[in-house]
C-alpha cells in the first residue's frame, strides 16, 4: 500500500477508487459501466484515468492476461481519513467541531442519527 502522505486523488479518481473498493478487482469496462450509472463519461476517459492512476500508484494493474484487471493500491479508510483531514484543514481551519456544526445545522438529522452521534461522542469521551 502507498504511503498515506502521497495519496492525492482527484474527484474522478476517487469515483474510480470507490468502484474498486466495492468490487475488489475490476476491468476498465466494469469500472466504466459502474460510473455510467451516475456520470456521463467516455470509455477512453475512464481508461486514461486508470492508466494515470496506475502510474501514480493509486491502483495496481495485472496485465498477465489480455484484459487488464485493476485493484485499488490505497486503503479505503486511510484515504478517507487523509481526505477528511485535508478537507477539515482547508475549509474549517482544522476545526472538527465547526465541520460537525455545519453538517448538523444545514441538514435534517433524524433522531436515530442523533442517537448514533451521541453514542460516538460518549465512546470518544470514555477513551480520554
From TrEMBL:
InterPro entries: BlaI_family, WH-like_DNA-bd_sf, WH_DNA-bd_sf
Sorted UniProt keywords: DNA-binding, Transcription, Transcription regulation
Spans traversing the lipid bilayer: none
MF terms (GO), sorted A to Z: DNA binding
GO biological process: negative regulation of DNA-templated transcription
The family this protein is said to belong to: Belongs to the BlaI transcriptional regulatory family.
Protein name, as recorded: Transcriptional regulator
Amino acid at each position: 500500500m502507498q504511503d498515506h502522505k502521497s495519496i492525492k486523488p482527484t474527484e474522478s479518481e476517487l469515483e474510480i477508487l470507490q468502484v474498486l473498493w466495492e468490487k475488489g478487482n475490476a476491468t476498465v469496462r466494469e469500472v466504466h459501466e459502474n460510473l455510467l450509472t451516475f456520470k456521463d463519461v467516455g470509455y477512453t476517459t475512464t481508461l486514461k484515468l486508470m492508466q494515470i492512476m496506475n502510474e501514480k500508484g493509486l491502483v495496481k494493474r495485472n496485465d498477465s492476461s489480455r484484459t487488464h484487471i485493476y485493484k485499488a493500491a490505497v486503503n479505503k479508510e486511510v484515504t478517507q481519513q487523509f481526505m477528511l483531514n485535508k478537507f477539515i484543514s482547508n475549509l474549517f481551519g482544522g476545526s472538527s467541531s465547526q465541520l460537525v456544526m455545519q453538517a448538523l445545522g444545514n441538514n435534517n438529522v433524524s433522531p436515530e442519527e442523533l442517537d448514533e452521534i451521541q453514542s460516538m461522542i460518549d465512546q470518544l469521551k470514555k477513551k480520554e
